[in-house]
Specification:
It contains 8 helices and no strands. By secondary structure, the protein is mostly helical. The protein has one domain (12-172).
Length: 176
């Protein structure tokens, strides 16, 4: 039986991080608000990856590799975090857990070099991700069935990959 929300210790560090500082507790569209945290995260990983690549004397391919490694690291850290948060809140993918949405946005922006991540690109990336995350077309929904935190994370990562492919296609066509 899931614990009653009125008895949940929301100051627990696991829940504080998993809810993106309690943003996941907003009563309407917590996933959308959680996804907003992914935009500054994507900008930060882009800046950090650019600095790493520059310090190593590399260009865009090294920047992409560094950013992909940071995003993968975040995903790996969030699997046990989401597992623990789901146990504390009850349920397979509790609504207040929104860190999975936040860490998905940087994946959407991987096809876009950090200097090209302007306001329009960020808005399009956000909308595409939310569209795929809400509609959950195959195979996104199937990833939800994975156990515990892996299922919580994987469906958002799959939605992010579809959104990234659309964003890359839009850039290739010159629409962005």
């Amino acid at each position: 039986m899931p614990p009653a929300h009125d008895r949940t210790n929301w100051t627990d560090p696991i829940l504080l991080v998993a809810t993106c500082g309690w943003v996941g507790r907003v009563p309407v569209a917590p996933g959308t608000f959680g996804s907003l945290f992914g935009l500054p995260l994507a900008l930060a990983t882009g800046v950090a990856a650019t600095r790493i690549a520059t310090s190593l004397g590399g260009g865009q391919p090294l920047t992409l590799a560094a950013e992909a490694a940071m995003v993968a690291g975040c995903m790996l850290l969030c699997v046990p975090l989401c597992t623990a948060a789901a146990r504390k809140l009850g349920g397979h993918d509790p609504g207040p857990v929104v860190i999975d949405e936040a860490i998905a946005l940087p994946i959407v922006l991987l096809p876009v070099p950090p200097p090209a991540r302007g306001p329009l690109t960020l808005v399009v990336a956000f909308v595409l991700f939310r569209l795929f995350d809400i509609l959950k077309p195959p195979p996104v929904r199937q990833f939800e069935r994975l156990p515990a935190g892996l299922g919580i994370i994987a469906d958002d990562q799959a939605a992010a990959c579809l959104a990234a492919a659309c964003l890359a296609a839009a850039r290739w066509q010159g629409w962005l």
